[in-house]
Amino acid sequence: MDDPQPVDAPLTQSATFLVLTADHSPTALHTIRLALASVPEITKNISIRHPDGRLTCTVGIGSFLWDGVTRPDPRPSELHPFREIRGAVHTAPSTPGDILLHIRAERRDLCFELERQLMDKMAGTVHVVDETVGFRYFDARDLLGFVDGTANPVGPAVPRSVLVTEEDDEAGAGGSYVVVQKYVHDLERWRALKVEEQEAVIGRTKLENAEVEDAPAGEQQSHKSLAVVADEHGNEHDIVRDNMPFGSPGSGQFGTYFIGYSRRLWVVERMLERMFVGDPPGKHDRLLDFSRPLTGSTFFAPSLTQLTRLGGMRGLQGVFQIFSTNVSLCSNGGNGG
Ligand code: HEM
């Protein structure tokens, strides 16, 4: 299998989630290809200045941009835009996104510098849809006060859960589907619940992070239970989450940036359906009564090999394309003048 991007990077103290839309003109696509292909090299150039900073950047490409930047490579079989999910009470909206940069490091300055250099490289070709700066909060807690990320797979189970294999789909091999949603919390209402009520919503105890027993089938399920997805053979499928708190007490904003990496897009989509529609339908995830998604986008993080290849032959094809466009513009200009 091709080398993957650092989708399995360990939890860090800081992260930037940058979602962009892109111009699709040939010149813009050429600039974007070169910029995305240079991400591993720029990351290395910055990392060497602070080797303990564990700087990584994962690039995700959205469904609408995929063909433009990767042609003639085929599309990963499940890649499509985020599909809105409408439950009886809560909706998961679908919002635009052509490029995702998931930048992680132990230090905020490293994330900042990488984002700055990449934005410089793509200047004039991309538009910011959302930029969220996340921070690690105490012992990996979300702003609701619960430890977040416990059930993530570890060790060899990580690549098994997040990386598409050649048997799954040759076009996506070594890559990973990525879904992001930016949630804001109503902390005042959440704090009005008793701790036992909060624990029933989440499905874990608050202080010790121990699992609370699942409710019997048909009754209100916790977030933890609704987020468990099995296939028709009863096999459970994990995803890797690296959620981050974000916010600003001064402006009263408190949120969780959800990011999930998965080998199979349908697994994340099924989790979202179970949360928003409920199981049984009507009994939605009560976490949503206190957490509202503002965004929702799906990307594919290609293998590192495919990413760096974007700067190669296709880059040259882009140059030829621009060159021939300019030549024909010049000759048109000559004819006209
Ligand atoms: C579990 C918080 C959104 C998938 C958990 C846990 C917490 C949590 C505290 C229990 C500890 C753990 O295992 O990590 C949140 C918050 C969210 C959010 C604050 C947003 C406001 C989502 C979304 C998904 C998801 C949108 C999937 C689409 C999962 C999964 C588990 C989990 C798979 C582990 C279930 C298990 O196997 O025990 N979440 N979550 N979460 N969450 Fe979320």
TrEMBL record:
The keyword Secreted does not apply. One of its GO terms (molecular function) is peroxidase activity. One of its GO terms (cellular component) is cytosol. Keywords: Iron, Metal-binding, Oxidoreductase, Peroxidase. It comes from the Eukaryota. Its cofactor is heme b. Pfam families: Dyp_perox_C, Dyp_perox_N. The keyword Secreted does not apply. Residues 8-136 form the Dyp-type peroxidase N-terminal domain. SUPFAM superfamilies: Dimeric alpha+beta barrel (SSF54909). InterPro entries: Dimeric_a/b-barrel, Dyp_perox_C, Dyp_perox_N, Dyp_peroxidase. Residues 139-304 form the Dyp-type peroxidase C-terminal domain. NCBIfam families: Dyp_perox_fam. Belongs to the DyP-type peroxidase family. This is Deferrochelatase/peroxidase-like protein. It comes from Hapsidospora chrysogenum (strain ATCC 11550 / CBS 779.69 / DSM 880 / IAM 14645 / JCM 23072 / IMI 49137).
